[in-house]
Amino acid sequence: MTTSNPATRWSALAPYLLSLLRIVAAFLFIQFGTAKLFALPAAVIPGGGTVPLASLPGIAGALEAFGGALLLVGLFTRPVAFLLSGEMAFAYFIGHAPKGFWPVLNQGHPAILFCFVWLYHSAAGAGPWSLDALRRR
What we know:
- It is found in: Cell membrane.
- Keywords: Cell membrane, Membrane, Transmembrane, Transmembrane helix.
- This is DoxX family protein.
- InterPro entries: DoxX, DoxX-like_oxidoreductase.
- By secondary structure, this protein is mainly alpha-helical.
- 70% of the residues lie in helices and 0% in strands.
- It contains 7 helices and no strands.
- The chain has helices spanning 6-12, 14-38, 56-73, 77-96, 103-106, 109-124, 131-136.
- The chain is globular, with a radius of gyration of 17 Å.
């Protein structure tokens, strides 16, 4: 007879919480891309509109929207997460760090957080609720 304590039961949920983290973070991440590319849910350009696709923000928006969609469903999670982690590091050091040291003041805290969430997923994978897990079966 095995006895399970609350800590053991909670630990058993870790793979599912990994999937949940990926899904929620990807949903939020996609919004940064769609705002740049399609002005949805709102325009990020002063005065409205979208960014040119062939610009640095346009490329970033495409990576965020389409890479985020792949992460949302958990397809090719490790390489996509690694790529997006690098994009977020690049975004922080190019777009935010020059505005000052403190991330909360230079508005870089989402980039830092996404960088490390995607870096973690590049190592940990997508979790059981993913197309990657379905493909492995």
